[in-house]
Amino acid sequence: FASEDDAQAFEDELAYMLVNQMAAPNSPQWFNTGLHHAYGITGPAQGFWFVDPETEELAPSPDSSRPAPHACFIQSVDDDLVNEGGIMDLWIREARLFKFGSGTGTNFSTIRAENEPLSGGGKSSGVMSFLKIGDRAAGAIKSGGTTRRAAKMVILDVDHPDIEEFINWKKVEEDKVRALIAAGYPSDFNGEAYQTVSGQNSNNSVRVPNDFVHAVVDDADWELVGRKTGEVVRTVKARDLWRQIAEAAWACADPGVQFDTTINEWHTSPAGGRIRASNPCSEYMFLDNTACNLASLNLVSFYDDESATFDIESYKHAIRLWTIVLEISVTMAHFPSQEIAQGSYDYRTLGLG
């Protein structure tokens, strides 16, 4: 701030709005921001990165003196088992986020389908085998985490060869749950029946382009394409896939649908690349390896019942104030990977609602 008086005025106005429930930040701000400032809590380095605002250079966080205030993340995954940016590395990056109360989404369509050839010989076990590992990891952190349940979005393009198994993943697992409940296991969501099956720790969505919707309307064929060769692996009826999506969503509320063409038509930064995924709640759709910091204003607090008027000037002032809050949060934060630290610093995506 330009002066101590400005900083104090900023703090006082924030405190007033919070105490009077006029506004609130997203949950990770409540969980993490201020722990070092108020209590001197640092903790060990945990693989986080930040961009130094003075030098604009990436640096590893030496401890947890920087907070993790962002709620919404989108991460990429490479078709690689153990290297940085690959499948197993993603579970580590997700764990960093889940531990501090954030959520993350990834499009897994880069990963080879079942029986696609591997470079060292043999066949791929398919994307579903790895999704089940991530599901278990999220469930374990849910049980032992410091803040709340893991929030995780899993996305697959509708032309992936494993798409049918993905569509029906939760539906089949719910059938197993019903069988276990019928056998006498408790029906509680945290009970042993649900703990036994997979797929219970994420939102699942199918990524659908306009071409697929047109194929459904025209009752046309739809091609499933290999991840490495780009060759057609199998051809199915588009309407059959669409019916499977609808029936699975009816049975277990998953998968959802993300309309890829429309999302990218509304892209605000198309030069940065395509939008391929979203955060778990799907209100944040942007580039891979970025994060969004959220806050919300309570509209009722700006409305006067007696005069039936809305205080538009105070509302505009609150918008300016909380935009500053979110902007500051980008600079003070650290992130679970170098790519996310750089992408979030460059694009500075904010969400004020």
Q: How many domains, in number, for the residues?
A: 1
**Number of distinct beta strands:** 16
Task: Enumerate how many helices there are, as a single number.
Answer: 13
Q: Which fold name fills CATH's third level, the topology? A: Anaerobic Ribonucleotide-triphosphate Reductase Large Chain
Distance between the termini: 25 Å
For the largest beta-sheet, the strand count, sense and barrel status come to: 8 strands, mixed
Order of helices and strands: HEHHEEEHEHEHHHEHEEHEHEEEEEHHE
The assembly state of the depicted protein chains is single chain
Strand content: 15-25%
Dominant shape: globular
The CATH architecture term is Alpha-Beta Barrel
Q: What's the helical proportion of residues? A: 40-55%
Description:
By secondary structure, this protein is α/β, with parallel strands linked by helices. The protein has a single domain, classed as Anaerobic Ribonucleotide-triphosphate Reductase Large Chain (Alpha-Beta Barrel), CATH 3.20.70.20. The chain is 40% helix and 18% strand. The chain is globular and about 65 Å long.
